[in-house]
Amino acid sequence: MNEKGPVISPQDVEELWRGRLAAAKAHYETAVARFRTASEDFRTHQAPSPDGGFGVHVAIAAESSARKEYMRVLRLFTDLVLYGRIPEIDPLEKPKSSAPSSRFPRKTA
Fold this sequence. Notes:
Elements: H1 10-43, H2 49-83
Helix pairs in contact: 1-2
């Protein structure tokens, strides 16, 4: 342990970020699948127009957010592996939450 906190090996940091990258990729792939389902339901009129259109809009926003997070983590991981740049983000902190956008109302029970 040093004055900045516990010492973490480079291999541990890389493995931590490899896990974060895998989680971000899985989250993005899930968002893409949900968008495809919502858009197909809307296109084939399985979802009524107002609800279906809103569902597609929400799915697009979720996909975009997941893609941005995946690209952010991929950039950090690439810099770590290729250049040895340890991200300035505390590697022990939890990844960003995938909270819904504040522009859309939340479902209420």
